[in-house]
């Protein structure tokens, strides 16, 4: 039985979700978080080393011990967020462990977004927040690109969770992978009671207001109120996952993001509550995906809006509730099929098997 370890960050709880699904199809898979776990995501192992580079330096002996243990325990190492176990550039230990694992170990990576995204990803997206040179200077992208070139050189395959990221990774060994959520198997509180109250509740849960275009959402809701609509905007920030889900369940309309050009993992969770989701889908990102059925599903299920059209989009959802309910049902069906963990995990294990067979 092949052994897989997902490491080392908690970003999106993606590693744990993959490990759990891999166990169901016969792999001995584990997940390990090294460092912070701010949202208390589930994991099979957590190495807490404090915040900042100094803590990582002081914990180097502990990480080295873990490196030795991993080297003798796994067939596949699946890294995430452009991180490895021992990555301390200030000590000359940039990706130190990656070139030292036994050659028999397969190394795979998943990119989540900002860990690899640079100008190549968003050059044709006029709404992208990453054009702002004051917040995201070109030098930072150059540094990120050079670091990832080293990271990619050690990987035998790379998955990306957003299709725009395919522009930033080696095309000969990279594929798009739909989001996967371990909480999928918890029975969702499916809500068919949209618009049952006098006040229409619009929910928006930004992890970063600038990136998600929150100011445009707030302005659009203010315009709706000024026009006489009985609406309220609920901004969900800083809540733990359990409490956030309770808030999502009260929504009539959900706004994901208006600038990035793709939907996030948050959209999957509210989709399974049968909520209509507004999010900006950039056409060129869709073109990066080869699966025509998937592309069609995205187009037909999400309600796409930009900072310029969000007011009209929200107004339509409020005035035509049948349209909103129809979109909620369409999105539910799309997510249930294309983000089904069993369907997603097959893409991952097919890559594992191919690489393990090549290893011999």
Provide an overview of this structure:
The strands form two sheets. This protein has a seven-stranded parallel sheet with strand order 3-2-1-4-5-6-7. With 360 residues, it is an alpha/beta fold. It has helices at 14-24, 53-58, 60-71, 119-122, 138-153, 209-212, 214-226, 241-248, 265-271, 283-287, 292-301, 310-319, 321-338, 341-359; strands at residues 3-7, 28-34, 45-47, 76-80, 106-111, 157-160, 174-176, 200-204, 231-235, 253-255, 277-278. Helices cover 40% and strands 13% of the residues.
CATH superfamily of the largest domain: Glycogen Phosphorylase B
**SSE-based structural type:** alpha/beta
Largest sheet: 7 strands, parallel
Distance between the termini: 14 Å
General shape: globular
Q: State the low-pLDDT regions, or none.
A: none
Counted by DSSP, the helix tally is 14
What's the helical proportion of residues?
Answer: 25-40%
Could you tell me the CATH topology label of the largest domain: Rossmann fold
Radius of gyration, whole Å: 21 Å
Question: How many beta strands in the DSSP annotation?
Answer: 11
Any idea how many domains?
A: 2
**Any guess at the CATH architecture of the largest domain?**
3-Layer(aba) Sandwich
